Amino acid sequence: MVRVLYQGELSPSQYLRALIPLPPDEYLDGYVTIEATFCYATPIDPQDPGSYTRSGLEVTFRPHVGKFSHDDTTVPRSQPFFRRSDFDTEQVLRNDAQKWETTLHADRRFRGTSLLQPVFDVHYNARSSGGAAKEAKKIRYALVVTVRSPRTPELYDNVLRTYAGQLEALQPIVDIPVRV
Description:
Elements: E1 2-10, E2 15-19, E3 31-40, E4 55-62, E5 68-69, E6 72-76, H1 90-95, E7 103-111, E8 119-128, E9 131-132, E10 139-148, H2 155-162
Antiparallel strand pairs: 1-10, 2-8, 3-7, 3-10, 4-8, 5-6, 8-9
């Protein structure tokens, strides 16, 4: 298992590409589970209860860097991750996928052969009174991605070696005593 934490700030209308770390050019054996949680801090819109947040993230999952749709050969094909389909209506996004919620969580299972340099493309949408915002502030975000591959026991070590210098193992700051 590999768990990666991304955190930082997004500017309005900014795009972020968050790579899901896997060993390079190597297909994983069997099924792989990807679990992701996005959390972000947004100002609220108290005068508009129907549109209670002023920010939303539109997250697009791209599982394979080499597979493209027929009409666009510049951007890898996307696949739903936090919603049911790529064609959900605004009402479905608001009710079911909580487009404007500040925490998004989902997990999906894939064949290892269908994943090659997968990424999340994140777009920060700012709004005011339910419409486009003329001015908006940066928002802070955190993304936790967990990859599980039961048939690849050396996954953690391979990822750590591949992304040496880019990823670092987190060390606990607080010691919790264990009573025996």
